[in-house]
Amino acid sequence: MLETERLILRRWKESDAEDLYTYASDPAVGPIAGWPVHQSLDESLDVIRNVFNGREAYAVCLKEDGRAIGAIELKLNGHTDMTDRDDECELGYWLGKPFWGRGIMPEAVREMLRHAFEDLGMKKVWIGYYEGNNKSKRVQEKCGFKYQWKTENVDVPLMQEKRTGHVSLMTKEDWLAAK
Length: 179
Description:
The chain is α+β, with helices and mostly antiparallel strands. Helix content is about 30%, strand content about 30%. The chain has one domain: Gcn5-related N-acetyltransferase (GNAT) (Aminopeptidase). It contains 6 helices and 8 strands; from the N terminus they run ββαααβββαβαββα. Strands 1-2-3-4-5-6-8-7 form an 8-stranded mixed β-sheet, with helices on both faces. The two termini are about 20 Å apart.
């Protein structure tokens, strides 16, 4: 479990399925991040069991009530196509729409960067967003990621389409310099 001023980042539990479904069934949330709207509580439970089960996958929870309002994950080597190194990983996240615009995701991202560099010994953390996902782009800029490149015709398998992808990077040196 990781903690910030307002948040607890903890492992997903099956009992989070209802909260996950509440936010993941909103068409404003998943599709822009590259995954389809959840259609049922069972689908959300399946995602908790089979997708949010990575070693560094966390539910984003407000301290005030402990309910899952989003997800954040460091995808380690073997679970990301951005790197094949054991000392690099990819960061991914999403947040329920009612919580947008409150600085919650930058707060969670900053803690995950600390965790990646201090606890896990990472040298680089990669991150991406699809064209048009300006909220995700803004979080990355606020947290100090440096833009690297744009890729056309990126496969988005869960949406069965191709998009333009943007990739940014945080190195341990840049993170230390910005602390």
